[in-house]
Amino acid sequence: MSDLSASNLSELFAQHTNLYSKRLPVYQAEMLNSLLGVWHDHHARVLDIGGGTGIIAEAVQKFLPTDEVVSVDVVDRYFPTLSIERQVYDGTHLPFPDNAFEAATINNVMHHIPREVRPALMREIRRVVSGPVYVKDHVACTWLDHKKLTVLDAIGNIPFKGQIEAWYLSEEDWSELATQGGYRISERSSGNYRSGLMALLFPNRLEQTMRFERQ
Description:
Helix content is 34%, strand content 21%. The chain has helices at 6-14, 26-38, 55-63, 118-128, 143-157, 171-180, 196-201, and strands at residues 43-49, 66-73, 85-88, 103-107, 133-138, 183-189, 207-214. InterPro entries: Methyltransf_25, SAM-dependent_MTases_sf. Residues 46-129 form the Methyltransferase domain.
């Protein structure tokens, strides 16, 4: 496991994309460090759900306590040079046997999934993952939070042709979703994603990382 700094992360990203050639991936480094902060033990095999380009899953495999990461998504936007295993799936049934993984990660994905689909997804994750689920996402407490997060999603996703449509969750929504999937939230953390004017406009409390433990 290597030092998880923005500069080291930039070196890894440069092997797969030039999108960070002119700016350090500070947000992504903070996100990965927040995952590390709630990470419990070493997990031999980790499932990454909604991997997008796969670059974060690649970083999880390199920088966090795991041997192997497998990433799945409903569309193939993966960078072709990645070392991780990646698959496209139907969004309903994860193509793995029961307890195939020791842990899972879902990074800035759940708010893009329609509300009515989320409980079934969590139960499907519980089927194939024997241990904790690490979730990095957003928390919206007011209507203004929803507006601000919509802007942040546009800034972050448009360069990668990612999804913009979203339905953000409150603290209560997250707790309810965990229970519906057979989990409890055992730890939460935030992070220093933005500073100065950006932190005033888009407070860091909008970001949250959680560890879901099986009940």
